[in-house]
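Q: Please design a sequence for this.
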């Protein structure tokens, strides 16, 4: 039981870390425009800034100064990713309280319910991140394959893949937390819990 919860916590922490990294990244969409080896320029954009770099290693970023001129899908992705990070924060708190190896949270039945609640919050966090990244990626791909779109076309940036990976980890970890309540009701206490408790002493 404790081993399963520790595994779920590792997945969720890793997922939230990836979601935060994706949210802060400026590489949501990228393009390359190379006229020569010296003047090769890469343009990449994120939720918060537009950046450009060249083959010499110099780059410059300009933040989005106002939200009123931003396209709707960028604002929606911002909201979804911020919601994912916020939910992950609260999910981490509930997960720490609901783990069997912590000394707060009340009885085993109460801690199991708190752990299940943490799992649902992590799943919701993962779904928010998954939706935000998928919405952004859908806009990029639709413009890329649209023959009537004559503006600059972009490709999927690394931040999208990081966000998808983080969302998957949150959903997997949250699901494990949710199923741990059923495992708790079926598994009697035994000596194995004592061994796992040493791992959780840090909490």
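A: Design:
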């Amino acid at each position: 039981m404790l081993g399963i919860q520790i595994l779920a916590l590792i997945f969720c922490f890793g997922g939230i870390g990836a979601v935060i990294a994706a949210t802060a990244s400026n590489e949501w969409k990228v393009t390359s425009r190379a006229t020569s080896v010296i003047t090769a320029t890469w343009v990449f954009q994120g939720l918060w800034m537009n950046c450009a770099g060249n083959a010499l290693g110099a780059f410059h970023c300009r933040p989005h100064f106002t939200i009123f001129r931003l396209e709707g899908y960028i604002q929606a992705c911002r909201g979804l990713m911020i919601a994912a990070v916020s939910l992950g924060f609260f999910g981490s708190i509930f997960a720490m309280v609901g783990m069997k190896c912590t000394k707060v949270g009340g009885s085993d039945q109460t801690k199991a319910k708190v752990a299940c609640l943490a799992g649902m919050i992590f799943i919701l966090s993962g779904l928010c991140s998954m939706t935000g990244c998928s919405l952004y990626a859908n806009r990029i791909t639709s413009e890329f394959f649209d023959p009537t779109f004559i503006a600059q076309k972009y490709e999927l940036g690394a931040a999208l893949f990081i966000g998808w990976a983080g969302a998957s980890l949150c959903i997997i970890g949250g699901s494990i937390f949710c199923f741990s309540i059923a495992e708790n009701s079926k598994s009697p206490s035994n000596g194995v819990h004592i061994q796992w408790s040493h791992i959780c002493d840090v909490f």
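Q: Thanks. Anything notable?
A: The chain has five helices and five strands. The beta strands are 29-33, 41-45, 49-54, 59-63, 155-156.
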